[in-house]
Design brief:
Blueprint lengths: L2 E6 L6 E2 H8 L4 H8 L5 E3 L2 E2 L5 E2 L4 E6 L15 E4 L3 E6 L16 H8 L6 E2 L8 E7 L2 H7 L4 E9 L5 E5 L2 E3 L7 E3 L7 E9 L3 E8 L6 H8 L22 E9 L6 E5 L4 H4 L8
Parallel strand pairs: 10-17
Antiparallel strand pairs: 1-6, 2-5, 3-4, 3-6, 7-8, 8-10, 9-10, 11-16, 11-17, 12-15, 13-14, 15-16, 17-18
């Protein structure tokens, strides 16, 4: 049965369809070669396209394929599984591992590990984490379960932020794209509504450790909101949180709760705070 794979190009400069699919989206050379031989296999903005055509920012590329898995398997990653059922698998992703392929990460992503573990299945992550954010990522094993899980996961994060925060609070500030950037976000009045709840669970003179519950799910929401109130995440150089002790933003998805789509069982999965974040609080028993 034919199916569509649809991608929207977010590009700073034009690139070929081939480079976009191989470099940005991790499409295998095998699948790309098959698409080139399939009439209508590649389309750009609704019109037939070739791998050599140039894409502009905002162009939509559609692939028409019978292949249900287009990521190259990578058996070397060894990312732990925190929970698994017939419907879903929850990975405990380390910091530094992207969820999806990108221009600088072609085959070393969670998607490539999934392709190795489950040949023939499409990688359908239900929640997404930035490359340097560690913790729990759920992936559905079929489209029906993906639809049932989408938007139903309750996520609890832990983050180490600069300075001493209030014991608890809510940050209610709209978030939009920063001018001139396709990556960075900022608080702006014409942005989309964004609400973050937090509770301080540990601290010292340099950092506070927060337990965070999101009411909305905007890109970089936790990072933007804490920078906005003057407490950027430790290690988050993009939003003003320099910290030599940690080489990434100190953010971790610590708990996922959901209803298993096939069994109806209420599931809660937990992940321990990583060593690099714990090290920022040497006197605390975390």
């Amino acid at each position: 049965m034919l199916r569509e794979l649809r991608f929207t190009a977010e590009l700073e400069k034009p690139m070929t369809v081939r480079d976009f699919l191989r470099g940005e989206k991790g499409v295998s050379q095998r699948l790309l070669a098959r698409l080139k031989q399939t009439p209508g296999g590649i389309a750009r903005n609704g019109a037939p396209a070739t791998a050599a055509d140039l894409l502009e920012n905002g162009d939509v590329v559609v692939l028409l394929t019978e292949d249900d898995s287009f990521l190259e398997p990578d058996p070397s990653l060894n990312i732990p599984i925190a929970y698994e059922s017939e419907a879903v698998v929850v990975f405990d992703k380390p910091g530094g591992v992207p969820v999806h392929p990108s221009v600088n990460h072609h085959g070393d992503t969670l998607g490539n590990w999934f392709a190795y573990l489950y040949p023939g299945l499409t990688f359908r992550p239900v929640n997404r984490l930035d490359r340097d954010t560690s913790g729990l990522v759920a992936a559905a094993k079929d489209p029906h379960c993906a639809n049932l899980l989408q938007g139903s996961l309750e996520k609890v994060y832990a983050a180490a932020v600069h300075g001493e925060t209030d014991s608890s609070g809510t940050i209610d500030a709209p978030i939009g794209r920063a001018e001139g950037s396709i990556i960075q976000r900022c608080v702006r009045q014409d942005g989309r509504p964004a609400v973050t709840h937090y509770r301080k669970i540990a601290g010292n003179s340099r950092f506070s450790l927060e337990q965070i519950l999101l009411e909305t799910g905007r890109t970089h929401q936790i990072r933007v909101h804490f920078a906005h109130i003057g407490h950027p995440l430790a290690g988050d150089s993009l939003y003003g949180g320099g910290c030599p002790e940690i080489g990434r933003q100190a953010l971790h998805c610590a708990r996922l709760s959901f209803t298993d789509p096939l069994t109806g069982e209420k599931i809660t999965v937990r992940s321990e705070l990583p060593r690099d974040i714990r090290a920022l609080f040497p006197e605390e028993k975390l």
